[in-house]
Write a structure and sequence with these properties.
The complex is a heterodimer of chains A (322) and B (262). With 322 residues, chain A is α/β, with parallel strands linked by helices. Helix content of chain A is 33%, strand content 31%. Chain A has 11 helices and 15 strands. In chain A, the strands form 3 sheets. In chain A, strands 6-8-9-3-10-11 form a 6-stranded mixed β-sheet, sandwiched between helices. A 4-stranded antiparallel β-sheet of chain A has the order 2-1-4-5, covered by helices on one side. In chain A, strand 1 and strand 2 form a beta hairpin. In chain A, helix 3 crosses helix 4. Chain A is elongated and about 80 Å long. The relative contact order of chain A is 0.13. Chain B has 10 helices and 1 strand, in the order E-H-H-H-H-H-H-H-H-H-H. Chain B starts with 7 loop residues before the first strand and ends with a helix. The chains are: A alpha/beta (322), B mainly alpha (262). Chains A and B meet through helix 2, helix 3, strand 7 and helix 4 of A and strand 1, helix 1 and helix 5 of B.
Chain lengths: 322, 262
């Protein structure tokens, strides 16, 4: 997004700790969210994601450590910080007696002087953006979870904030709504930093450039999606072959660029996972070896891609230290 | 030229009161922009003026109107009790509801100070309560008390003065219930403490007579009646201690709410 230029850090926490009595919810959290990133904050339920966000918003106080947004301490300069950010709670609830339009007007008046038609225009834009224009004058107490979520997204960005903190922004939405939200997030990235929590890993892989994984109050991994799914894992190639596969397996096991071969037989075909220590040697030789063997048909050939979900489960289960 | 209008960012954040105007506007709108004030007014007219009317009719039936003036004084005590109960019922949810359902967190995620949030709740609800529990039922009670109990028109300024004395007691319970809403996590405590005070003041004063100079008990039962008939106010101290205690409750509520984990 910024063409490799050094990006400013928008959110920075240092040893951020939160205790509720004996229970330590956050354990010395060090987090850095770069400007203009779509930063996915992942973790299983109860990992401490919402607690972190509440501390950043000044709704809760840390037991230890510091949190800064825009270089300002959240405890000392909360009002100024909050004037520059937008927040979507996990379960958005608004005063039930207000209509959607009134909720947006109420929100906007915290940031803008009540300037008549300009305010009305902004409200209309936001209603259109989230597809609530036809329900604008309905009281929000009758809204569904998805409609409240859409209204929540609209109110969070009505003042065009520099930072959006979104707690599970797509959780209550249907697939179409989710798609819209992700599109909005991508669009907003040109002018805002987005820090959001989610458990929908497909969404993260689709829009995020940076992620942090929180488990039991601790950051267990932080970096780009590529770093997370790549890491220091061995490269693996997958082949599905049919016919005379035994000599092929023997040749692979003897090759110096192969560190291991796993084979599963299925419906007369053999599925091979070939672990590689020299990717260029593998690219040059692997398929060539297969095709050189008589009576062997290659049905599928690809480099195995690690999905974020796989990496996430591995990290949470302690398979990787981040 | 509407198209050329641009949104003007708020120039400054008003420190401890940032967001107050917007919040107060919303609170007043919740009362007066909806039919809430009308519904509450009708309810309290029915309760307060209904009771006054029934007492008046019963008194007439038994020809006890020679004690009319004394009855009229007691009527204010009755309004004070009913009104105070009404305040507790209306105020018990004000903080707890929004804290529980997440509206408070949402509002305080904006550039809003916690003091502004609390003060807007207090002023907005006090205005709604004074209109629907004191002013409207009071204005309807004026001809009732004048004609049924006294038999002639009472001094209207004196009547307004008596309502103002009542308002002090009502504000006391508004502030007390607001403070309890910041202290307790459940409605039980918020309801129990002021209700115990409303019904327990008289026996408490029986046990410790000096408490009459501190508690608001005498405002409705004695002082409002004295003001109504232009008599000398014997118990002046509660006219000072009641607003002082109300301010103390607001101060304590503010201190507590600033530390609240939302």
């Amino acid at each position: 997004m910024n063409n490799g230029q050094t990006r400013e850090t928008i959110i920075r926490t240092r040893e951020l700790t939160k205790n509720y009595g004996e229970i330590q919810v956050l354990k010395s959290l060090d987090l850095e969210v770069p400007q203009y990133s779509i930063f996915g904050f992942l973790g299983p339920n109860g990992a401490g994601k919402t607690t972190t966000m509440r501390i950043l918003l000044g709704l809760s106080s840390p037991s230890w450590g510091t949190a800064e947004i825009f270089g300002k301490n959240v405890e000392d300069e909360g009002l100024e910080i909050r004037s520059r950010l937008g927040y979507l709670p996990q379960h958005p609830v608004f005063p039930g007696y207000m209509t959607a339009r009134e909720v947006l007007a109420f929100t906007a008046r915290f940031f803008y002087q009540d300037s008549g038609s300009a305010l009305k225009t902004r409200i209309e834009e936001m209603l259109n953006l989230v597809g609530l224009e036809r329900k604008a004058d309905r009281k929000v107490e009758g809204f569904s979870g998805g409609e409240r979520q859409r209204l929540g997204i609209a109110q969070a960005q009505i003042h065009q904030p520099e930072l959006l903190i979104l707690d599970e922004p797509a959780a209550a939405l249907d697939p179409l709504g989710r798609h819209d939200v992700l599109a909005i997030m991508e669009k907003l990235q040109t002018r805002a930093t987005i820090f959001y929590s989610t458990h929908i890993l497909d969404d993260v892989q689709q829009v995020s450039d940076t992620v942090a994984i929180l488990n039991q109050g601790e950051i267990v991994a932080q970096g780009s999606i590529e770093q997370l799914v790549g890491g220091d894992r061995e490269v693996v190639y997958q082949l599905v072959v049919k016919g005379n596969w035994r000599p092929f397996r023997e040749r692979l096991e003897a090759a110096p660029w192969v560190t291991g071969v796993e084979l599963k037989e299925k419906n007369g075909a053999a599925e091979l996972e070939v672990l590689i220590n020299d990717q260029s040697a593998a690219e040059d030789n692997l398929l060539r070896e297969a095709l050189s063997i008589k009576n062997l048909v290659v049905l599928e050939y690809r480099q195995k891609k690690i999905e974020l979900e796989e990496a996430f489960i591995e990290i949470i289960n302690g398979g990787q230290d981040g | 030229m509407a198209e050329q209008e641009v949104l003007q960012k708020k120039r400054e954040l008003h420190g401890g009161f940032s967001g107050f105007n917007n919040l107060l506007r919303a609170e007043l709108n919740r009362w007066f922009g909806t039919s809430r004030w009308l519904f509450q007014s009708l309810l309290w007219v029915l309760i307060i003026d209904g009771v006054i009317g029934v007492i008046g009719l019963v008194s007439k039936m038994f020809e006890e109107l020679e004690t009319a003036a004394a009855d009229a004084q007691q009527i204010f005590g009755l309004i004070a009790v009913f009104g105070s109960i009404g305040v507790v019922i209306l105020m018990q949810n004000v903080i707890i509801n929004e804290r529980e359902n997440g509206v408070a967190s949402w509002i305080l995620s904006k550039p809003v100070s916690r003091s502004a949030y609390l003060l807007a709740k207090l002023i907005g609800n006090t205005a709604g309560i004074l209109v629907s529990i004191v002013l409207i039922p009071g204005l309807i009670a004026y001809p009732l008390i004048s004609q049924v109990f006294v038999g002639s028109w009472l001094s209207f300024p004196n009547f307004l003065g008596a309502l103002a004395v009542l308002a002090l007691e009502i504000i006391f319970y508004t502030c007390l219930t607001l403070m309890l809403g910041t202290l307790f996590q459940n409605r039980g405590g918020v309801l129990a403490v002021p209700l115990a005070l409303i019904f327990g003041q008289q026996p408490m004063i029986g046990l410790f007579p000096d408490l009459i100079h501190i508690l608001p008990y005498s405002l409705g039962t004695i002082t409002a009646g004295a003001v109504l008939f232009g008599e000398e106010v014997m118990l002046k101290l509660p006219l000072l201690t009641t607003p002082a205690l109300s301010l103390l409750f607001v101060f304590l509520a503010d201190r507590r709410f600033r530390k609240e984990e939302l």
